[in-house]
UniProtKB/TrEMBL annotation:
Protein name: MITOFERRIN-1-RELATED
Source species: Salix koriyanagi
Upper lineage: Eukaryota, Viridiplantae, Streptophyta, Embryophyta, Tracheophyta
Similarity comment text for this entry: Belongs to the mitochondrial carrier (TC 2.A.29) family.
Placement of Solcar repeats on the sequence: 34-121, 128-179
Alphabetic keyword roster: Membrane, Mitochondrion, Transmembrane, Transmembrane helix, Transport
Bilayer-crossing regions: none
Record GO biological process: iron import into the mitochondrion
Membrane-related topology note: Multi-pass membrane protein
Length: 179
């Protein structure tokens, strides 16, 4: 049986207005309940996990793109996968993963952090502003791509080259920088 206090509290559903944006969230050190450094770490971990899980698929895609530039040869996913496994074994699917880790961690930390900072500054008056979220996403993507693109190029060179072409990530970086 409901008491008078609970029945009067919920008499009119239109009077219910939850406060999703409390004072704590708008403080200088907290964004949506998390601190800035927590966004950086969680973004970095999320990006690394995602890129590592998808790395074999990315390797196959990179090889298909490289072969696809040749108009004479047409290849399928299974053809590229079989070719990679025959030539280098399962480890060939992970060639260049160190470069990806060196780029993806910092890039995703930048992405999550820039997004939250931009969202906080652009949506002060309206926390649900679609424009603020879209502009924040654009800013975050541009910033993270500036961090990730150089290591992505190194990753692709390592994926496409054999072990004899580059001795590792730093060898590839040095040789590309010398050009």
């Amino acid at each position: 049986m409901a008491t008078d206090a609970t029945t009067t509290k919920f008499q009119n559903p239109t009077d219910f207005h939850p406060d999703f944006h409390s004072e704590k969230i708008s403080s200088a050190t907290s964004y949506d309940g998390l601190h800035f450094w927590q966004y950086m770490i969680s973004g970095s971990i999320a990006g690394l996990v995602e890129h590592m899980a998808m790395f074999p698929v990315d390797t196959v895609k990179t090889h298909m793109q490289a072969i696809g530039s040749c108009p004479i040869k047409s290849v399928s996913v299974t053809h590229v996968l079989n070719s990679l496994l025959k030539s280098g074994g399962p480890s060939s699917l992970y060639r260049g993963i160190a470069a990806m880790a060196l780029g993806a961690g910092p890039a995703h930390a930048v992405h999550f952090s820039v997004y939250e900072v931009c969202k906080k500054h652009l949506s002060r008056d309206n926390p649900n502003s679609s424009i603020a979220h879209a502009v924040s996403g654009v800013c975050a993507t541009v910033a993270s791509d500036a961090v990730f693109t150089p290591m992505d190029m190194v990753k692709q060179r390592l994926q496409l080259g054999s072990d004899s072409v580059y001795k590792g990530v730093w060898d590839c970086v040095k040789r590309v920088a010398m050009r």
